[in-house]
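Tutorial, part two.
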Amino acid sequence: MSRAATMLRSHPRPASVPVDAVAACIDACLDAAQACTACADACLAEPQVAALVECVQRALDCADVAEVSARLLTRQVGAGLAVVRKQLEACAAACDACADVCERHGHLAHCRECADACRTCEEACLRVLQDPPPPRGYGLDGM
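Running the prediction step on this input gives:
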């Protein structure tokens, strides 16, 4: 069991959403944020860095969006479900955009790894979005 799942389950207000899917999404978001940051850094060290500018931009954008997504998903008290859903939609879109660019540079190992992490995160976000919204009380009130 991941730390995210353990923390969600230990919360004094039990979640009424599928904890495993939310925890997997948190883990995937954090993994994507790290992979994107590392990929952007590696792109800057490549000899053909000028050809990788879009990759660096998409990776840094995705890292930021994924990190915020993980943070919002972690909060069970006070977050608005509508905001979280929009954030997950944005995260899935950022991951898709980053993966598309990284896949074009698949000859670079860091881009392949980044694309894989982004696709995993995109799928995890979409999985959470497909679940029916929780009833009031998860803390994600407002839907």
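DSSP finds five helices and no strands in the chain. In part three we will examine how such features are distributed along the chain.
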